Amino acid sequence: MSLDSGELGAPTSEVVASTVLEAFASYEKALSDHDVETMNEFFSDSTEIVRFGIADEEWGVEQLRAWRAAAPPVPAGRTLASTQVQLVTDRSAVVTTLFRYPGRSLLGRQTQVWACLGGPVTDASSWRIVNAHVSEREEQR
Q1: Number of domains the chain contains
Q2: Quick check: 21 and 85 in contact, CB under 8 A?
Q3: CATH label of the domain that carries residue 45
Q4: What are the beta bridge partners of residue 26?
Q5: 40 burial level (CB within 10 Å; 0-12, 13-18, 19+)
Q6: Are 28 and 80 in contact (CB under 8 A)?
């Protein structure tokens, strides 16, 4: 059965991608609000998750939570551009986005692998980040 077909009542890829985007937007709001508890909830509760940050790396949920507890908030005014959701399967997706902060010449790049770890794929609360990578580079003009 094709994910795009909608056969047998299966959600279309557009619906699943929209749901992942909804989860991503909620994560971004928590990030901007420095809501550490909510940010932690968006990551899989697994020892196998990996997050590479700008100047840090976390291996497993305990390292991630410890880092989040000590990390400062992201600078105010974060804006996103070119956000894309690529479905890998009907229960996994890769979200990529660019980000900028006012007054900084750096261009941020963020990649997250999301997995639906329980519940319906059309419920944003079913999706969790299982891998993430963040980097910055000088913006080319």
Answers
A1: 1
A2: yes
A3: 3.10.450.50
A4: none
A5: middle
A6: yes
Over residues 80-104, the pLDDT tens digits come to 999 999 999 989 999 999 999 999 9
28-76 per-position pLDDT tens digit: 999 999 999 999 999 999 999 999 999 999 999 999 999 999 999 999 9
The structure tokens listed for 4 are 């795009």
**Residues whose CB is less than 8 angstroms from the CB of residue 34 and which lie 6 or more positions away in sequence, other chains included:** 73, 74
Structural domain boundaries, residue 81: 9-138
Q: Residue 3: which of 89, 84, 86, 85 has the closest Cα?
A: 89
Contact 42, 31 (CB under 8 A): no
Establish if 106 belongs to a structural domain: yes
Q: What is the pTM of this model?
A: 0.89
Name all contacts of 68-72 with Cβ < 8 Å and 24+ positions apart. 68/36, 68/39, 68/40, 69/36
Q: Give Cα separations from 15 to 22, 37, 99, 122, 126 (angstroms).
A: 11, 27, 25, 7, 14
φ and ψ at 102, to 5 degrees? -60, 140
